[in-house]
Amino acid sequence: MPADLPTGGSPMASVTIDGIGKRFGGHQAVQPTSFSIPAGAFATLVGPSGSGKTTILKMIAGFEEPTSGRVIVAGADVTRVPPHKRNIGFVFQQYALFPHLTVFDNIAYPLRIRRLPAQETKARVGEALQLVQLSGFGDRFPAQLSGGQQQRVALARAIVFRPPVLLMDEPMSALDKRLRDEMQYELRDLQRKLGITTIAVTHDQTEALVMSDVVVVLNRGAVEQIGPPAQIYRKPQSEFVATFVGESNILRGKAVEHERGFWLEVDGKPRLPLPGMAHGSAGRSVAYVLRPEAVSVGDGGADAVNVEGEVLETSFVGESRRLRIGLGWGTPLIVKVPNRVDLRTPQVGERAGVTWHPGDASVIPS
Ligand SMILES: Nc1ncnc2c1ncn2[C@@H]1O[C@H](COP(=O)(O)OP(=O)(O)OP(=O)(O)O)[C@@H](O)[C@H]1O
Ligand SMILES: [Mg+2]
Fold first, then answer.
1. Which domain holds residue 64?
2. How many Cβ atoms are within 10 Å of 31's Cβ, its own excluded?
């Protein structure tokens, strides 16, 4: 085993993938894809099952050879460098612990191959166990742990050697919500403190939005959109992103010129003003995208968009109430209103005004 691997305090490293793609037989699992994650940033890959998330992580780590393109870590082309020399921490989707080693020895493994002195190894493993809330579990074997505990051991093993780059494939999927919230917070804290450039895969939308500096949305092996969480959420660039990340109302129609501006025409009538349309947009098919929580019941005044409809359904979802309101055109609007005793929720069958700020809508060409 190589003795020259760094054991921490490594300089921060940016990660760039430059046109990497992967073909499995006749199937293009990842289209040639490029993006760059700045040193010290936390990036999250989200996308449907089979969209190529794991394959991209494996190509960055070196466990899967790209069919095209290059992987660049801290400015150096590592495309041909074997995984153990890339100095990247990796948490696999299947935890992949060594079954014949105790928890302690599993976590100590990356330090032993780096020939760290025994005393420091002990201290570092202790620290890592504490981080994942498993102090006292060092002597157990993986088979004696729950799934969530095994997952946390895998996480501890990936960070114990303080790699400049950490890749995690759904590292918290087996944890309950409370533990997950705590680990999210602590992991983010540690990641910031050590400046570890992190790329994580998650199916948990909130986790992606809460943890990340950058969110990469993948669809069918290609990047749909990349940006800070607020931008992905507030300004989705495609219907796919609008519906995959969070919930969206989508009203489809045609841009028409009306009252000195552009309007959304549905069923032959102009229905809503379209913000930010360029000249020459008349006749284009567009999707008008609006988050449920951006809409409220009532009249928002002259600067707001105001429409009227009939309440088709109301449901209780804990912190909010969801209303489905039929406008008499397009698809019914989903509206999320706060659940407060002082706010009266209109009942099924009633007519209700609904309103939103035009700036809360996104208009996407379709
Ligand atoms: N070793 C392999 N041989 C053949 N096809 C593969 C192989 N690994 C992955 N694939 C295919 O490549 C595509 C992308 O797989 P990948 O594991 O990257 O998806 P994913 O986004 O991680 O999905 P999930 O959310 O289910 O984990 C899928 O269609 C998958 O079936
Ligand atoms: Mg996967």
1. 15-237
2. 17
